[in-house]
Amino acid sequence: MQFIRRSLRNESEAEDLCHDVYVRIYQAALKEIPEPTKPLLFTIARNLLLNRARHETIVSIEAVADLEALNIAKDEPGADRWVAAREELRLLEDALAHLPRRCRQAVTLRKIEGLSQREIALRMGISEKTVERHITDGVNALANALFGDGRSR
Predict the structure, then answer these.
(1) Is the peptide bond prior to 77 cis by the omega test (within 30 degrees of 0)?
(2) Buried (b) or exposed (e) across 28-62, using 16+ Cβ within 10 A?
(3) Which of 14, 34, 47, 54 is the most buried (most CB within 10 A)?
(4) CB-side neighbour CA atoms (13 Å) of 113
């Protein structure tokens, strides 16, 4: 718990993550716990922290696509921001359309439909490592299309 608390400032998030670590340890125990167990415990905690950090940095494509549906009267963005957001969405859609078919499929299943890498691998009939490579390549290509020169277009 101290290891997790040092990485997360929010106490309830730290408790949730600690619970997730215990769930993973329990699942591992159902199969067979390797000796020694302490490194396994810290490896699981580190991996969950890394996953949480990755998820916090990913912007949902659906969230960008649903900008029009929000219909919020106050704090409505000005026309310039709305046009810029629509242009970024158009760039994203165009970049997604130009990805290789299998790469586009993996990125869509992961980032839009929210499937796990394992589920995607089973659905596409490829290894999880290949799914990971497709997603990495695809997300990098999308990021370059939107922020290729280091600035939002």
Answers:
(1) no
(2) eeeeeeeeeeeebbeebbeebbeeeeeeeeeeebe
(3) 14
(4) 13
CB count within 10 Å of CB 95 equals 18
Q: Give the tens place of pLDDT for each residue, 44-57.
A: 888 888 887 776 66
Q: Are 111 and 60 in contact (CB under 8 A)?
A: yes
CA distance 52 to 73: 33
The span from the CA of 9 to the CA of 7, in Å, is: 7
The residue ranges of every structural domain in the chain are 2-57, 61-147
As given in the structure block, the two tokens for residue 119 are 């589920």
Task: State the pTM of this model.
Answer: 0.46
Q: Residue 74, CB half-sphere, CA atoms under 13 Å: how many?
A: 0
**CATH code for the domain defined by 61-147:** 1.10.10.10
CB atoms within 10 A of CB 72: 7
pLDDT tens per residue across span 85-124 = 778 778 888 889 999 999 999 999 998 888 899 999 999 9
Amino acid at 113: E
